[in-house]
Amino acid sequence: MKVDLQATREALEVITGGWRAQALYTAVKLGLPDHIEAGRVTTVELAASTGSKEEGIHRLMRLLVAMKVFEGDGETGFRNTALSRTLLDEPDSMREMCLLYGEEFYTAWGHPKKAITTVGSGFEEAYGQPLYSYLGEHEDAADRFQRAMKAGNVFFDYVPDVFDFSGKKVVDVGGGNGQLLAAILSATPDATGILFDREHVVPLARENLTATVGLDRVELAGGSMFESVPPGGDVYMFCRVLAGWADDDVVGVFERCRRELPADGRVLVFDRLVRATADAEATVLPSMWDLHLLMTAGGKHRTLESFTSMLNRAGFDVERTADLPLENTAIIAKPRH
């Protein structure tokens, strides 16, 4: 009986996916997209520029050309593609994400059986401590993490299209480097903001917000959302910061916002939602990010029903939802009166 060749090929594509990811990571770690952009395009030139053996560069580039990351050949010269240009050492590129996912997060994914069977963190198994504790102690990793998060947030510029922030004071809880708040304030000149995150994140936020919208419309506050949230906001928003925490903890955070909000205030949640069960309309990306959260932080993505339940417990009603790019969703909730 002949094997199903198509199914076999598809299985091989999945099985070798990690090799592809690590080949791309290696290219970024060596700075190959940047060297090519600077005119160092042959195998000899790339080897010399990266301190590598020519054979190693030749074999790596052979695969990456086949993957359509680069074009050309080692003798006449390689060329960047639209894909490899997203990995240049430039602001807002995917470079930092590629490095983080190829190093710490790749190591965390080395413990999938343990994570799946215990519903625990692969990262903690690998590094002996939770992700956020590790980031608090390793400044370089924390910086890489924030820059990687920034690269993955290409939907931010579309957020002002799904909610009217005019005249509002917007509190970005767990706001990271301030990219989302900067996008909102840039699009809404009469809005002001408060960025609230852990103390070690605030300096990066200050740097980013100073360079984008300036600090005349933004306050910076450090602390834990599990203890308090800044008072005085008209809108409290949470962008992909709730997945690593238990439902009861998240409800507590929402309750703190409820106590601070005016009657016409809103809570906004931006996240990737998963479906309760697999179906024909489900796509791979949300489920893949959900499993990634288990590996890195012991967390999970939630369904819309789960968010609705937590918001209801905290005294909110979901007013509406809106789709955002790359399968992200905005959940807009109002206080229950």
Supply the CATH superfamily name of the largest domain: Vaccinia Virus protein VP39
* Quaternary form: single chain
> What does the average pLDDT come to?
92
Order of helices and strands: HHHHHEEHHHHHHHEHEHEEHEHHEE
Helix content: 40-55%
Q: What percentage of the residues does DSSP assign to strands (E)?
A: 15-25%
CATH architecture of the largest domain: 3-Layer(aba) Sandwich
Could you name the CATH class of the largest domain?
Alpha Beta
Radius of gyration: 22 Å
> Could you say how many structural domains there are in total?
2
The fold-level CATH name of the largest domain is Rossmann fold
Major sheet description: 7 strands, mixed
How far apart lie the N and C ends? 68 Å
**How many E-type strands?**
9
Specify the structural class.
alpha/beta
Provide the low-confidence segments as ranges: none
Principal-axes geometry comes out as globular
Strand order of the largest sheet: 5-4-3-6-7-9-8
Total of helices: 17
Question: What do these coordinates show?
Answer:
- The chain has two domains: 5-85, Arc Repressor Mutant, subunit A, CATH 1.10.10.10; 150-335, Rossmann fold.
- Strand 3 (169-173), helix 13 and strand 4 (192-197) form a beta-alpha-beta unit.
- The chain is built from 17 helices and nine strands.
- It is of the alpha/beta class and 337 residues long.
- The longest helix is centred in the C-terminal third of the chain and has 14 residues, at 247-260.
Which SSEs are present, and which pair or pack?
Blueprint: H1 5-15, H2 17-29, H3 32-37, H4 43-50, H5 54-66, E1 70-73, E2 77-80, H6 82-85, H7 95-102, H8 104-108, H9 112-118, H10 122-127, H11 131-137, H12 139-151, E3 169-173, H13 179-187, E4 192-197, H14 202-212, E5 218-222, E6 235-239, H15 247-260, E7 266-271, H16 284-297, H17 304-313, E8 316-324, E9 328-335
